[in-house]
Amino acid sequence: MKMDGKEIDLSKTKTTTKAEKREYEIIKDSDQRKGVLSTESYMCPKCDCTDVYFYLEQTRSSDEPETRMLTCKDCGHGWREY
Fold first, then answer.
1. Cα angle 56-61-66, degrees, rounded to a multiple of 5
2. Geometric angle at alpha carbon 59, from 28 and 69, rounded to 5°
3. 18-45 in b/e burial notation, b at 16+ Cβ within 10 A?
4. pLDDT tens column, 11-27
5. How far, in Å, CA of 72 to CA of 4, rounded?
6. Contact between 79 and 70 (Cβ < 8 Å)
């Protein structure tokens, strides 16, 4: 790499910053609502609410399309669309 016309060797460069611990949510937990909240895109078949959490998951082989997993914000009913 050149900087200001001078050659700089970066092959032995090390970072001085430390990775911080991050909090994260386990989205596979079936009793938690998960995914992106969508309004007016889906309707719960149980209570007709249009506020629905959804995410995509590969449930079959890789040459098949993903499965859309949905959870109602109001009643917690979960279903999937293929």
1. 20
2. 55
3. eeeeeeeeeeeeeeeebbeeeeeebebe
4. 777 766 555 665 544 44
5. 58
6. yes
Calpha distance 44→42 (Å, rounded): 7
Give the burial class of 54: count Cβ atoms within 10 A of its Cβ; 0-12 exposed, 13-18 middle, 19 or more buried.
Answer: middle
Which letter does DSSP use for residue 75 in this model? T
CATH class of 34-82: mainly beta
Q: Are 76 and 33 a contacting pair, CB within 8 Å? A: yes
Q: Which residue reads 């050149």 in tokens?
A: 2
Q: Which amino acid is at 18?
A: K
Residue 55 or 34, more confident: 55
